[in-house]
Specification:
The chain is an alpha+beta fold and 188 residues long. 34% of the residues lie in helices and 24% in strands. The longest helix is centred in the first third of the chain and has 17 residues, at 3-19.
């Protein structure tokens, strides 16, 4: 790649970065175009963008973080949204920040396979709180932060796990938890 080609790329990259500061950036785009626009963001940034878009598109009520009851509620039922974006450098779905102590109904997990950006595939899963507890027993999980010794006395540790799209666990998930739409999440 030449210096001129890199400069052209960086001009577009910086324009996208600057545009992404807008809270509802890409919300009016169709889903795959929205995903393409946020591919370059950090996981924390793209996760928040995806979560906020889903909440907005489905007219759900956001929940404040200090309530410790997930990301949104509908009809006084609380839910958590988790996202993972697969790219050429991130080949596995990484689901982070599972907080088993929260008093929520369940989880919506969106795994977006953008490894081939021309053909993005989104897997939408819905798990109840009990189903997630069972999955945490089956799938190898770890605390999000800290060492084993530092975490020994901590009862409320956010957890994370990885899921390969080629694994038996992912096949089971597609069989047991995959949905196209349901009574709460109907639009992406």
């Amino acid at each position: 790649m030449t210096n001129e080609e890199l400069n052209d790329f960086l001009k577009v990259f910086y324009r996208l970065k600057e545009s992404s500061i807008v809270k509802d950036y890409g919300f009016d785009d169709e889903w795959n175009m929205f995903i393409k626009k946020i591919l370059f963001l950090s996981p924390k940034s793209y996760g928040t963008k995806i979560q906020n878009r889903i909440i907005s598109k489905n007219l759900l009520q956001p929940v404040k973080a200090n309530e410790d009851k997930g990301d949104f509620k509908k009809n006084n039922r609380y839910f958590e949204i988790k996202t993972s974006l697969l790219t050429i450098t991130n080949q596995n779905a990484n689901v982070t920040g599972i907080r088993p102590w929260q008093k929520i109904e369940g989880y919506y997990i969106f795994i977006i396979d953008a490894r081939v950006f021309e053909s993005i595939n989104t897997y939408a899963f819905r798990l109840t709180k009990d189903e997630m507890a069972s999955e945490l027993e089956i799938i190898n999980n770890n605390p999000v932060n800290g060492t084993k010794k530092a975490n020994e006395a901590n009862q409320n540790l956010p957890l994370r796990f990885a899921l390969s799209l080629d694994s038996e666990d992912f096949t089971r998930w597609t069989r047991e938890y995959l949905f196209n739409n349901d009574e709460i999440i109907q639009k992406l």
